[in-house]
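hey
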């Protein structure tokens, strides 16, 4: 069992290798890396284990003194990450030396009043070390020289991180008993048991706005430019005594529209979040209606087997007639996920958002429901009496699995697909399975 030591944030100006360092520390490609500045925007948390200890590492976007409105939001997220950290790693480019932005940012880092380890990255050989030592002029302490891409010096860096965090923990224990507070903040041992809720949809439909509304803070960067979110951002939230792990994902477009490697990896991460989630909030822009890409995404989510809640966002921008037409359009164009509840909201103003927790919990309960065999067969027999199959008969059925409910039907002949859809609807109504997929498997008895 590892001992959790807290949270480490990696900061610096754009393109100094922060995400590469995160990947090296995690031992896998957790962060998206490109040879372009500004790839990382939101702050992304990952787990790191080293020498029997664990800590969270927070990857941040590049800090800029000046820039666009989006750049300023990225810099604001960097400040929030530093304020909530136990240790700051300020990364510079050892091949470039100290820039004016490094000097300005170092002043901001000092004002945070947290332990700091200055890092010169991209120091690939001994010949580069002399110039890299110049970053000591930042006044943040003795620098650590590393090459994140090659792993040079990263072991020594991890040792130093663990030493600093252990000293922090000892000092905190001397002031007060912080064990319970630390467990509440990090919750390292119960995360796997927490319900994972992924927010998925096309670019610019309001996923990050909904994420921030549910999280109660600007945890994800929101901007009118499509594709603002590039990696999956997660945070723990609590509603009515239930704790969820919210996952904000990058917007997914058609393959032909994906024009950068960064966006490709963003989509890969988003699809991974869908596959690993327990519930998916599928967000649609009500002002644009159900597009072909919405249909493709809904099909992909349905194939993952996760329960779906359809969220029609920007509902406040529709007239009464447009709202009626939109509901009809969702019913028609997304009929193949007709088991999914639909909710209309305005994430920007919070209208309707408070109804989401109830739908999520209901979908979770349906997804995990187990039906006793005797009660299941009573419902099957009742459905057959009400509307017999034109061909074949079910002898009995058993539920073989949950997540989602999977029912094996033993029949004397092959059953028509249309009648199986009827039976599925009957079972949904009987056992209140709204929100969850239901799998029906038919086995033929007697070889007929």
């Amino acid at each position: 069992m590892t001992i959790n030591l807290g949270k480490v944030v990696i900061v610096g100006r754009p393109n100094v290798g922060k995400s590469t360092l995160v990947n090296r520390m995690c031992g896998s490609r957790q962060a998206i890396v490109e040879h372009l500045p500004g790839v990382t925007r939101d702050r992304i948390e990952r787990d790191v284990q080293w020498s029997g200890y664990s800590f969270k590492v927070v990857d941040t976007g590049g800090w800029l003194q000046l820039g666009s409105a989006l750049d300023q939001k990225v810099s604001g997220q960097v400040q929030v990450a530093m304020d909530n950290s136990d240790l700051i790693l300020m990364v510079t480019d050892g091949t470039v030396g100290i820039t004016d932005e490094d000097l300005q940012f170092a002043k901001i880092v000092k004002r945070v009043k947290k332990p700091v380890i200055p890092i010169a990255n991209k120091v690939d050989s001994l010949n580069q070390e002399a110039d890299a030592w110049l970053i000591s002029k930042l006044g943040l302490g003795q620098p650590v020289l590393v090459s994140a891409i090659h792993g040079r010096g990263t072991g020594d860096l991890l040792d130093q991180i663990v030493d600093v965090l252990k000293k922090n923990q000892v000092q905190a224990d001397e002031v007060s008993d912080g064990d319970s507070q630390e467990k509440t903040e990090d919750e390292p041992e119960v995360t796997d048991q927490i319900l994972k809720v992924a927010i998925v949809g096309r670019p610019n439909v309001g996923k990050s706005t909904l994420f921030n509304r549910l999280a109660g803070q600007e945890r994800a960067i929101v901007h009118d430019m499509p594709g603002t979110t590039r990696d999956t951002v997660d945070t723990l939230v609590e509603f009515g005594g239930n704790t969820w792990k919210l996952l904000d994902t990058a917007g997914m477009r058609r393959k032909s529209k994906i024009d950068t490697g960064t966006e490709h990896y963003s989509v890969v991460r988003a699809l991974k979040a869908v596959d690993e989630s327990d519930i998916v909030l599928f967000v649609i822009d009500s002002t644009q209606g159900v597009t072909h890409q919405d249909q493709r995404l809904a099909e992909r989510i349905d194939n993952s087997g996760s329960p779906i809640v359809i969220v029609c966002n920007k509902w406040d921008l529709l007239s009464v007639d447009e709202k009626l037409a939109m509901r009809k359009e969702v019913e028609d164009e997304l009929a193949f996920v007709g088991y999914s509840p639909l909710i209309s909201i305005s994430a920007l103003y919070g209208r309707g958002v408070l109804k989401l927790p109830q739908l999520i919990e209901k979908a979770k309960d349906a997804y995990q429901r187990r039906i006793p065999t005797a009660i299941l067969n009573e419902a099957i027999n009742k459905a057959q009496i009400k509307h017999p199959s034109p061909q074949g008969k079910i002898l009995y059925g058993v539920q073989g699995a949950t997540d989602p409910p999977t029912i094996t039907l033993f029949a004397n002949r092959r059953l028509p697909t249309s009648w199986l859809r009827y039976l599925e609807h009957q079972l949904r109504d009987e056992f209140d399975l709204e929100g969850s997929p239901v799998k029906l498997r038919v086995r033929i008895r007697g070889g007929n």
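The two ends are 56 Å apart (CA to CA). Confidence is low (pLDDT under 50) at residues 31-41, 178-192, 219-231, 253-264.
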